[in-house]
């Protein structure tokens, strides 16, 4: 009889995740930050758009997601990092000694929640921001809208998986956030616009993610955003996430708890 | 049964556990003793698959811990009572562990009641005293009703009532045929509750012996006797070739078995108020045994030069 089944481990990780308040807090913050920022942008553009050429309300309307992602990153980091800061990793691994089983249960539970949260966030953000744009808003019926929204959901979910992987590698919430927040925010938002650095920085996960959402490049404008298309962006982002998760698994398997 | 075979763990240049081999048998309480830093916790972490041995093996009923398919139903462990997420309630902590091993929810209620945590089950772990954390850790260890228990310093932080409770619990568990392996850095803590002793120092095995054999070895442990007729008893015992020393408080320190003293006193009709084995000297014997291996020693000469 084996009671340490994948299903049991997943159920345990699910309960574990929801038994601390930071989970619902960070998920709510993801939604609020993303929707709030995008809606505010919508309102502020609404009456001053007459002179802007090449304006894409889809691009601008999803901008809040890049801020919301930070809360989702914190969510991903905390569900892994809190095991190490509290020392509960020892109790967890004594209960589930097969580390691959433990790791996949945790990552699966976290990713599933991140996926649902991302879907809600992206849909609410889109609807709310486009409503705020008023006459300049767009609707789901525009051809490239659904794919951009799917791209945004995939981006958020993968970035959360990336965060969980990084947190497992460094085994600390504080160090994870110290690495991830600059990497995901300062890197592309600031340095990413410096032409000399672009050839390198455009391969960072959030740059790929922005391309995936198609918000990095307004139509007909190739001067902003990476040199590759959404397809390559998905590959790049998946590669980052896979590398972080594989790295996390290897560290978890090798290191003493 | 737990079996360690040439178990070794090095952290960089420091050897924490050095070629340990021993067996922990079912049906008795085995004390795992050694000074602070002797390698007790590291050994226990290797038993639970948390630390990987540098060389050697440790197995649970012949299988490495990582390969157990029902870990919590096989081994219950208390390692670090504070290792609970501070914002998680006691109930949720136990629920999570139970769920990961397919243990029914009713068992969670049972161990909460068994460890006296019912009134605090819904409180976050960060509000717990050390004693309450320790009880939660014991509840977690008992969750799977395991045949093997590994307890690292379980009486740490418990009040006297709690200490008695855990002693009785360990005895009961061993009587039921379970394997109970309990560590301590104090002989006096376990002297009353263990059947077998495994003593280590600086990661090496110093003794693997039954408690009674350990006591017998300490022939100079002696017996303290209080009597209203110290001179007569002294003569009777000395006449039988036993070394007797008079203590400052009027009692006699006798180098013989309590039984023999009783028989002699009765034969000569000497009134005896108390015949007590000198347990303080068990602690001393333990300290003598481990003296060369103590890693952290207080500086004793400080202050005399003032």
TrEMBL record, chain A:
The keyword Glycoprotein appears for this protein: no
Transmembrane segment boundaries: 25-45, 57-80, 101-127, 147-170, 177-197, 228-252
Pfam families hit by this protein: ABC2_membrane_2
Keywords: Membrane, Transmembrane, Transmembrane helix
Protein name: ABC transporter permease
Organism this protein belongs to: Streptomyces albipurpureus
From TrEMBL, chain B:
Top-level division of the source organism's lineage: Bacteria
UniProt GO MF annotations: ATP binding
Database matches in Pfam families: ABC_tran
SUPFAM superfamilies reported in the protein's UniProt record: P-loop containing nucleoside triphosphate hydrolases (SSF52540)
Domain ABC transporter: 2-227
Gene3D superfamilies: P-loop containing nucleotide triphosphate hydrolases (3.40.50.300)
Keywords linked to the UniProt accession: ATP-binding, Nucleotide-binding, Transport
InterPro entries, alphabetized: AAA+_ATPase, ABC_transporter-like_ATP-bd, ABC_transporter-like_CS, P-loop_NTPase
PROSITE patterns: ABC_TRANSPORTER_1 (PS00211), ABC_TRANSPORTER_2 (PS50893)
Coiled coil: none
Protein family per UniProt: Belongs to the ABC transporter superfamily.
Name the UniProt record assigns to this protein: ABC transporter ATP-binding protein
